[in-house]
Amino acid sequence: MHTAGRDATETLLGFVRTLRAAGVGADTGRAAAFLRAVDTLDVTRPGPVYWAGRLTLCSSGAELARYDACFAHYFGGARPAPAPLGRTLATTAPAMWNPPAPGDGDADTTGLLAAGDTEVLRSADMAALTREERAAVARLVSRISADRPRRRTRRLRPAAHGRLDHRRMLRAALRTGGDPVRLPRRHRSTRPRRVVLLIDISGSMAPYADALLRLAHVVVRGHPGHTEAFSVGTRLTRLTPQMRMRDPAAALAAVAEAIPDWSGGTRLGTELKEFLDLYGRRGAARGALAVIASDGWERGDAALLGTQMARLARLAHRIVWVNPHKAQPGYAPLTAGMRAAWPHIDDFVSGHSLDALEELATAVIGGRREGGGPRA
Fold this sequence. Notes:
This protein is of the alpha/beta class. It has three domains: 3-124; 152-191, no CATH class; 193-364, von Willebrand factor, type A domain (Rossmann fold), CATH 3.40.50. Helix content is 44%, strand content 12%. The protein has 15 helices and nine strands. The chain has helices at 3-21, 28-38, 46-57, 64-75, 108-114, 119-123, 131-141, 166-174, 206-222, 240-243, 248-258, 268-284, 302-315, 336-341, 354-364, and strands spanning 150-159, 163-164, 185-192, 195-200, 227-232, 237-238, 289-293, 318-322, 347-349. The strands form two sheets. The protein has a six-stranded mixed beta sheet, sandwiched between helices. Strand 8, helix 14 (336-341) and strand 9 (347-349) form a beta-alpha-beta unit. Helix 2 packs antiparallel against helix 3 (46-57), helix 7 (131-141) packs parallel to helix 9 (206-222) and helix 12 packs parallel to helix 13. The longest helix has 19 residues, at 3-21. Residues 82-117 and 369-376 have low confidence and may be disordered.
């Protein structure tokens, strides 16, 4: 292959790497199909290349917006318009085509972030991000504002609407000659609901553990008196004291020193039993919103996990399970751990991207779906 051909191939492969970093499922087979399709086209015209990549590299409709954003950034042009029937795609292509110089494939996503285009990054699967992009996501996760879940109490307080407050009404009537001028009302007050977070830091959860721990820091820092955080792997580690540090970098550094079993195996049943024995029955889980972040790859006894999940369900107000693999097309909870836990889960969410973590913090942990959100 001559030099120009090699340059074009390197440019197209750099585009494929950009798509992968943005969460598009452009695997090796799709990349090969893309190169074969482009080999029959005029690569100096972006229109045919755009549609060849769109047809070969995207595996679902959810990836089209990411593909368009990456194409516009990488090749420096807008998305070509669809061609009318009976006309070639090349007739709708823009006049200019400015591919980056060969060897710049590693710098393309950095340029994307430098330009402030975080829309693609927000929806990208964190397992597909580069080291620089994960650092950018980490900074954005630390800016999430988690709402505080609340629970109703038995105590009543004055309110504009609600049941009649007969005592206040009679006292007011005595001051007006026996005629109630106003009808005072009251309703139940609310208090913050306790939140418990159990973060899986095993090897299979390594691409997501840092962001999930940062989200836990956001929740603990926002509600220090009503939140507990733990890591689970081959042993249970309480992280609440470290999470109460205000600075995210200092808190995560302290967490890294406190966790002795990074990227090991997963014994969810054993660790959940230890949590319930040491903390749950003493009040940490009673009436709480329990959030478990794990992919469910249980190396221990799955029956034990099912038994402990049943115990947790009897104590907790609601159980939320965060599994990053839920976002994958066609996912089903087929692992032994997920099958054992499934009957006791109230909310099943993904948490695979920045958008998903923000949804978890505000809608799920924040209580907007507390009245009976969907199981999955």
